[in-house]
Amino acid sequence: MVKTVKEPLRKILGRSFLSFEELTTLLAEIENIVNLRPLTYVSVDKDDPEPLTPAHFLYFGRKDFDYPLQFTELFDKTISKETLRRKKLYQTVLLRQLWTRWKEQYLLQLRTAHKFSPKCP
User: Fold this and answer.
1) 91: Cβ–Cβ under 8 A, 6 or more apart, which residues?
2) How far apart are alpha carbons 67 and 77 in whole angstroms?
3) What is the DSSP letter of 50?
4) I need a labelling partner for 120 at 20 to 30 A (CA). Which of 3, 8, 71, 76 fits?
């Protein structure tokens, strides 16, 4: 699983310069995307149970998370709103590109693994 994330991430970031906080945020978003991917069939019927995801195993039924600090403590008061908007937009673009590449690569690997797996009687 790590390889399927590292390769698209390396291609997308290239020689981009991200601060530690930006990279940490991006990696946390990627972790969230990967852990919320469905492992089972996704039904269109709202009455069906939600699909099983890796997050169900990692967080074991927790729906709400308490953060150890207040987010207002993290803000740098010297950064303008426009700079924050640009950084958020850039991170969003990177995440979209990563999601597209990762999804294609992951589905290809699933197809290949299924193709070469031994048939059960």
Assistant:
1) 22, 25, 26, 29
2) 21
3) P
4) 3
